Amino acid sequence: MCAKGFTQDNIKRPNVSGQFYSSNPKKLSQNIDNFLNKADISPLAEHVEVLIAPHAGYVYSGGVAAYGYKAASKGEYKTIVVIAPSHFVGFDGASIWPEGSFETPLGSVEVDQDFTDNISARDANFKFIKEAFSREHALEVQIPFIQKTFKDFKIVPILMGRPNFKTCQELALALDGAIGNRDDVLIVISTDMSHYHDATTAGKMDKMAMALVQNLEAEALWQGCQQKKVELCGFGPVATALLYAKKRGLVSKILKYADSGDVTGDKSAVVGYFSAVFYPDEKKNEKKILKDKTVVLNDAQKKRLLEIAKETMTTYIKTGKKLDFKEADPRLNLEEGAFVTIYKNGNLRGCIGNILGRGPLYKTIRDMAIASSTQDPRFSPVGTSELKDLEIEISVLSKPWKVNSADEIVIGTHGVIVSKGLFHKGLFLPQVGTEQGWTKEQFLSVLCTQKAGLPADAWKDPSVTLEVFTAQVFSEKDF
Questions:
Q1: Does residue 273 share a domain with residue 338?
Q2: What is this structure's pTM?
Q3: 26 within a domain of the structure (yes/no)
Q4: What is the domain extent for residue 422?
Q5: What CATH code is carried by the domain that includes residue 163?
Q6: Is the domain of 353 the same as that of 407?
Q7: Partner of 129 at 20 to 30 A CA spacing, among 2, 179, 382, 421?
Q8: Averaged over 346-366, what is the pLDDT?
Q9: Quick one: what percent of the chain has pLDDT higher than 70?
Q10: How far apart are the C-alpha atoms of 472 and 156, rounded to whole Å?
Q11: Could you tell me which residues come within 8 angstroms of residue 180 by beta carbon, excluding any fewer than 6 positions away?
Q12: Segment 183-207, tens digit of pLDDT
């Protein structure tokens, strides 16, 4: 016999259909349409990446939830992550439904198994606790709204039981790493606000909570909930969203607030509801976008590339074998130029790279780690005894573009390629000028003489080509 809410083929049946929302497909569809039509907001032009919506019975909170879904309705999402609190089962970490589908009166929604596998593998505290889903409503009530708003998507159902702040940090980091450069993922956060205070008290508490959400103050929100200054039954999912949003350079917009008394007329003991969305802050992100629109690597991606370089170099030097990696993150599969630089006790020990990508970035890093440690003609190959003293630095390059004169070059920002004909070409990475304390003239003169075999002032010659590029530079000491 199957437990309540489950079937043997991993299909999750609804727990609260006919209670929190209508079990009649036609009536449920009409109800949601009415909520969406009445929401006094237009679909946002901004690309919504995170949405917060309440999870009470639709008669109480459906009108508030509709604001968030309507605001995000222009988005085209292939994966929708739904994070909700577990009201009935306490546990550490997060419970992630791994595969199968979820049923509602509007039909079934497939679980994105590739994504759940990806995120579950990132932390031992992310596992599947089936009983956590057996009675839970907070996640389930979001799905009919999702079904009515979007098309051609899969879901990633996540419940948080007794989260500590570290769990929120770990989940935010895991989401950041799993999503990477994808622009077709939406995160839905399910939460209600204060419970059973009079409307005036509730309004003050909820206003404080929304201000913290607006300012992405994850830790202050967490502490406020612990001290009972604010109340969010989904404080773990919300804190996770704020950490994620801050890491991704998103801004928050509060769309709607109401309480249950607005429906019942009883203001003596209300439950608060709000809806909010998060989307990229274009002004902040201008600094993170390179000239050729290369998307900046996040911390998880940087760490992974450093791991690949370190593991590759260590294994190759000890055994002579080249490791084979398979990376699912689309960002790490882009073709980009990259250099791997090795330092020993602060001194250069090797540096080799490709200006342009020749296959996936992660494979370029692997190959350049081997080359810089064993093939740099300026140094002997790295020995096993040296491994403990080495530090790896990676530079991921944008595509070069030609400049008309040296006036366009910014030391510390631009790497430079100088070339004349087929036999005179040299390159300096952006960090070289800063590390050496050179002026622009010194930087270009040394580049011409030491790297390109040209006269020191050849960079002034109109027949010499000057190209520049930017680089994302990071090393093991950054982490």
A1: no
A2: 0.62
A3: yes
A4: 400-471
A5: 3.40.830.10
A6: no
A7: 179
A8: 91
A9: 95
A10: 31
A11: 298, 300, 301, 329, 330, 331, 332
A12: 899 999 999 999 999 999 999 999 9
